[in-house]
Amino acid sequence: EVQLVESGGGLVQPGGSLRLSCVASGFSFSGFGMNWVRQAPGKGLEWVSYINNDSTLKYNAKPMKGRFTISRDNTKNSLYLQMNSLRAEDTAVYYCVRETFSAYFDSWGQGVLVTVSS
Amino acid sequence: DIQMTQSPSTLSASVGDRVTISCRASQSIGTSLAWYQQKAGKGPNLLIYKASSLESGVPSRFSGSGSGTEFTLTISSLQPDDFATYYCHQYSDYSRTFGQGTTVEIK
C-alpha cells in the first residue's frame, strides 16, 4: 500500500522559514516524480512544486518562485520542501503527492498544516 | 499558465440524482485531465484520469468525458458517500492547475 506521511508543519512568523518532509513507503520511490500541493483554509487546491525521479527537473508555481525549493533523497525515500520568506498567504495544508508516469496524481498524503502568523 | 474553470461552484442534489459537473480549460489540453473527490479533513482521492478512464476501485457510477477544452464528470446515481467536493486537474503542461472545486450538498 502506498503511504505518504508529511511532517514539519507548524506556526511560523512572517518572513520565517520552515522545512516540510514527506516519507514514502509501499512503492519504489526513486521511480516516481513527486509534487507538493497546498490548500488554504476553506479554499481549493493549488499546485506548489514538482520534482522528477532523479532531481534533474524541478518546477515551481509562480507565487513560490525564489522562495520555495523542492528536493528529495531517494536513499531515504523522502521528499522535502524548503520554504523561505513565508507570508500570511502561505498558510495552508501542504500535501505530498505522487505523480504517475502520465503526470496525473494518484496518491496523496494526509497533509500537514503550516500557519504563518505573528 | 492554463486556467481551469469549474461549474457550478455548489450543487444541491438528492440521493439517486444524476449529477453533472463541468470543467473548462483556457486552452486545449487534449485528454490530460483528472478528477478528484475530497472529503472534509482528508486528502483528495483520484476518480478519473485521461478524461474518461476510471481509477481502479472507484465505483462505476462515476464517469468522465470530454477532450480539448470541455470536460464533464457525471455521477449516474448519487449515493450518500458522494457528498463531497470535486476538483478537475489539468496535467498537460508543467503548471498542473486545478479547477476551483464543486461542492455537492444534500438537497
Description:
The complex is a heterodimer of chains A (118) and B (107). Chain A has 118 residues and is mainly beta. Chain A is 0% helix and 53% strand. Chain A has no helices and 11 strands. Chain A has strands at 3-7, 10-12, 18-25, 33-39, 45-51, 58-60, 68-73, 78-83, 92-99, 105-108, 112-116. In chain A, strands 2, 4, 5, 6, 9, 10 and 11 form a 7-stranded mixed β-sheet that branches. A 4-stranded antiparallel β-sheet of chain A has the order 1-3-8-7, with no helix packed on it. In chain A, a hairpin with a 5-residue loop joins strand 4 and strand 5 (45-51). Chain A is globular and about 40 Å long. Chain A starts with a strand and ends with a strand. The model of chain A has no long low-confidence stretch (mean pLDDT 96). Chain B has 107 residues and is mainly beta. Chain B is 0% helix and 48% strand. Chain B is built from no helices and 10 strands. In chain B, the strands form 2 sheets. In chain B, strands 2-10-9-4-5-6 form a 6-stranded mixed β-sheet, with no helix packed on it. In chain B, a hairpin with a 6-residue loop joins strand 4 and strand 5. The termini of chain B are far apart. The model of chain B has no long low-confidence stretch (mean pLDDT 96). The chains are: A mainly beta (118), B mainly beta (107). Chain A binds chain B through residues 35, 44-47, 50, 59, 61-62, 95, 100, 102-111, and chain B through 1, 32, 34, 36, 38, 42-46, 49-50, 55, 87, 89, 91, 94-101.
